[in-house]
Amino acid sequence: MTSGSILRSVVTGVGGYLPEKVVTNADLEKIVDTNDAWIVERTGIRRRHWAEEGQFTSDLAVEAAGKALAAAGRSAADVDLIIVATTTPDLTFPATAAIVQRKLGCPIGVAFDVQAVCSGFVYALSVADGFVARGMSKCALVIGAETMSRLMDWTDRGTCVLFGDGAGAVVLEPAAGQGTTADRGLLGFALRADGTKQDLLYVDGGPSSTGTVGKLRMQGNHVFKHAVINIAEAVEGAAAAAGVAVADVDWFIPHQANQRILAGVAHRLGVSEDKVVSTIAEHANTSAASIPLALAKAVEDGRVRPGQLLLMEAMGGGLTWGACVLRF
């Protein structure tokens, strides 16, 4: 680096993977007391992907990671850090990241999981930035991967129709920047958590409490109210930390929870809906995978291009929420 320059964590590759099995709202009508019109009106979801029996979260993560590495012109041999954001790990331990490391054939390095539910990818990016921007990692994989279908209670029509499976990944590499908003890379974060709101969105099982995996429980109306207000605040916080105005953002890439939440946050922030990347109709809510999957889709179809300013945000169980600003 030259005098006065700083290290930035730059996204050099993006990849997404969705399991082959597609489940439409019409398919769900056969197993749940629901209908397509009800689901679309309240959520915007039309279909979702489910992992096949024997297909694990780590398998989805490996597929997405392989695409991200190829896009970055890197191989598994280059990777020295793997962070997987997931709430549906293969096993209680080891970390899914360590399993991904083994399956990819990466050398010995750092590998661990981040658990912040739907906010996990934003949290994981901030953790990876602490490694990459400090020169402690030369090639990091940050992956959001979920098999949310495994947590569903199929008698609860208010939640089981909302979720899908998938994975998205980015490669982060260090690059010299000048410390300005024109730099490529991660520019600013705002991360939040409020454990007093646990009962609004949680899973009712765990190793130390019930000895079971448990099922997802959600008070949807309450989550919606908190989501719009909290996410907007975090977005403004991340933009302030980055030194940019929300109005300057080229693309708003939110967690894909519900089309009405996406529209509500955009309206509250004064962001035009044509700047919002939405994959909710095709992917449903893939928790920590939803942001990198949406990013991968927008990169693939040419909407997101190098040099553009991106704003990513999420809210999930905990409650956790957060946002980050990235110049792609």
Structure overview:
The protein is an alpha/beta fold. The chain folds into two domains: 172 residues, Thiolase/Chalcone synthase (Peroxisomal Thiolase, Chain A, domain 1), CATH 3.40.47.10; 143 residues, Peroxisomal Thiolase, Chain A, domain 1. The protein has ten helices and 13 strands. Strands 1-7-6-4-5 form a five-stranded mixed beta sheet, with helices on both faces. A four-stranded mixed beta sheet has the order 8-13-12-11. A two-stranded antiparallel sheet has the order 2-3. Strand 12 and strand 13 form a beta hairpin. Helix 3 crosses helix 4 and helix 7 crosses helix 8. The chain is globular and about 60 Å long. It starts with 5 loop residues before the first strand and ends with a strand.
